[in-house]
Write a structure and sequence with these properties.
12 strands; alpha+beta; five-stranded mixed beta sheet; 24% strand
C-alpha cells in the first residue's frame, strides 16, 4: 500500500462528509472530504458553507493588496498622473532567468504589491536606481537603502508599443537573447526584419519622473 494511502474504512467514513467534525475541528482527512470539488471555486464554496476560514495571503502581504496579471493594465492606467511612492522593492529571476522587480507601492488608492519586468519600464528604472546607489555606496546594499524609497510625483505613463524580432540573437559571450527591439527607422525594412518574425510588445508603463 502506498505511504499516503488510507484504509478503505477511513475513506468511506469521510467520503461526502462535512469538513468539520462534531467537535468543530477540521477533519484530518480533509483531502477526502473535499474530493468532490473540481475547481478552486468549488472548494472555496465548501469552506464558506462549513464556516472554515481561509485567507487570500493577507498573512504574507499585510495590508498590501497584490496586483495580479489580470489587474495590472487597469491598475497602471488608473495611476497615470497619480502620485505614488515605492516603499521597497526586491529583484527575482523569472521565466528564462528574466529578472523582475516586486514593488511595494503606496498611492492615493491604497497599498499594493506589483511585479514588473519591463527593461524599458518600471523594472528598468528601479534596476538603474539600485545599481547607481550601490556603485555610489556599496554599503547601501547591506543596509537595503539601495532598494527602498522611490518617489514618483506624477505617477505612471504608458510607454509607446514597439515591434521586436522573435529570432534569437547572440551577444559577445555567445549567449542567446530574444525580443530584440526593431529600430523605428527600420520598421519598413521587411528584408532585414521579416514580418513572420515580428511581434508587437505588450503594454508597459514607466514612472513619470
Amino acid at each position: 500500500m502506498a505511504a499516503n494511502a488510507k484504509p478503505n474504512a477511513e475513506i468511506d467514513a469521510v467520503s461526502g462528509k462535512d469538513l468539520v467534525n462534531k467537535d468543530g475541528k477540521v477533519t484530518k482527512l480533509i483531502e477526502w472530504a473535499t474530493q468532490s470539488a473540481a475547481s478552486p471555486e468549488e472548494i472555496m464554496d465548501m469552506f464558506l458553507e462549513e464556516g472554515v476560514p481561509f485567507s487570500h495571503g493577507e498573512e504574507l502581504t499585510g495590508d498590501y493588496k497584490v496586483v495580479t496579471k489580470e489587474m495590472k493594465e487597469e491598475w497602471c492606467d488608473k495611476h497615470i498622473g497619480t502620485h505614488l511612492f515605492c516603499v521597497t522593492w526586491d529583484f527575482y529571476d523569472g521565466v528564462g532567468d528574466q529578472e523582475f522587480a516586486a514593488v511595494h507601492i503606496i498611492s492615493a488608492f491604497g497599498k499594493f504589491i506589483m511585479n514588473d519586468g519591463a527593461k524599458g519600464g518600471m523594472y528598468g528604472q528601479l534596476r538603474k536606481t539600485t545599481d547607481f546607489r550601490e556603485e555610489q555606496d556599496p554599503e547601501s546594499a547591506v543596509l537595503r537603502t539601495s532598494t527602498a524609497g522611490f518617489d514618483a510625483p506624477k505617477g505612471l505613463r504608458r510607454n509607446k508599443p514597439f515591434q521586436y524580432d522573435t529570432r534569437p540573437k547572440s551577444d559577445k559571450a555567445g549567449e542567446e537573447h530574444f525580443g530584440h527591439a526593431i529600430p523605428r527607422r527600420e520598421l519598413d525594412d521587411t528584408v532585414k526584419w521579416p514580418n513572420a518574425f515580428r511581434e508587437t510588445s505588450r503594454p508597459t508603463w514607466s514612472f513619470d519622473i
